[in-house]
Structures are given as C-alpha cells and as structure tokens.
Amino acid sequence: MTTESPAQTVQRLFPLLAEGKSAEAAALFADSVSFSIPHPPGIPWVPEVDSAEGMRTFFDLLQTHVRAKEFDLRQIIAEGDDVVLIGRMVSEVRKTGRDIDTAFALHTTVRDGRISLPPLRGQLRRRQGLLRRLTVRSG
C-alpha cells in the first residue's frame, strides 16, 4: 500500500471542490482546523471555521453565493508535513454579477493523511523558517 505525500493529499481538494463535492472535500480535513479569510462585514459565505464540518459549511456557502470562473494553482511548495499553495482565482458573486479576483497563499499541514490549517499566531515562526529555507533554495 502506498501512502500519499502531503502535497498529493492537498491537491485532491481542488478537483472535489470543482465537482461540487463539499462533503468529500471536507473529509480531507482534520477534526480541528483554524480557517478564516479577512473580509468586510456582511459577506455571508465567509464564516470563521474551526472543524472539518465547518469547512463543509464554508464550501457549501461558497457554491451558493459565488461561481468559480478561473482557478490557477501556480506553485505548490512542500517540505515535510507543510504544503504552501500559491495561486489566483476569479469568482463571480451570483447576487451582483461582479467578479472577485484573488491572489492567494495558503499554508496547510498534513498529518495522518488529513489537512489542518494551523492558526497563524501559533505557527508564524515555523512558517517564517519554512519560507526562509525555500528562499535560500530558490535564490
């Protein structure tokens, strides 16, 4: 039996989301996560999330309120259990027809085959060390 690398585990997420499979996508997440997106008040599809079930709610809300138009995963950086995803996505807000064009960098950790989203404060030093090592390697 072969086991997936952390990068392979994280990469399974996007096809599931593209197919509208919120439950299957949420099942990739650990029981406890810390996920939030900075946003103005009143945006109904961006809850504070602390669990795999919360991720499912987020994915369902997202599909209800926005339509994906473009998704470009430009780079995947993996070291150990850490996977950093860098990309861009364009979505249309269904209610207004306006586009949201977003560049993103998402840091995940995969343990026991499940994705966790560590809280920013507790993980900042670890992320800085990872980014410093990656900068040295690519420079």
Total strands? 6
* Secondary-structure content class: alpha+beta
User: What is the succession of H and E elements?
Assistant: HHHEEHEEEEH
Low-confidence stretches: 121-127, 135-139
Radius of gyration: 15 Å
**What kind of sheet is the major sheet?**
4 strands, antiparallel
- Beta-strand residue fraction: 35-45%
Roughly how much helix do the residues carry, as a percent range?
25-40%
Global morphology: globular
Distance between the termini: 37 Å
Strand order of the largest sheet: 3-4-5-6
Oligomer: single chain
The overall pLDDT, averaged over residues, is 83
Number of helical stretches of at least 4 residues: 5
Question: Would you give an account of this structure?
Answer:
- It is built from five helices and six strands.
- It has helices spanning 6-11, 13-18, 22-26, 52-65, 120-138, and strands at residues 32-35, 49-51, 66-79, 82-93, 99-111, 114-116.
- The strands form two sheets. The chain has a four-stranded antiparallel β-sheet. The chain has a two-stranded antiparallel sheet with strand order 1-2.
- The radius of gyration is 15 Å and the shape is globular.
Describe how the helices and strands are arranged:
Blueprint: H1 6-11, H2 13-18, H3 22-26, E1 32-35, E2 49-51, H4 52-65, E3 66-79, E4 82-93, E5 99-111, E6 114-116, H5 120-138
Quick synopsis:
This protein has 139 residues and is of the alpha+beta class.
Summary tags:
6 strands; alpha+beta; disordered C terminus; single chain; two-stranded antiparallel ribbon
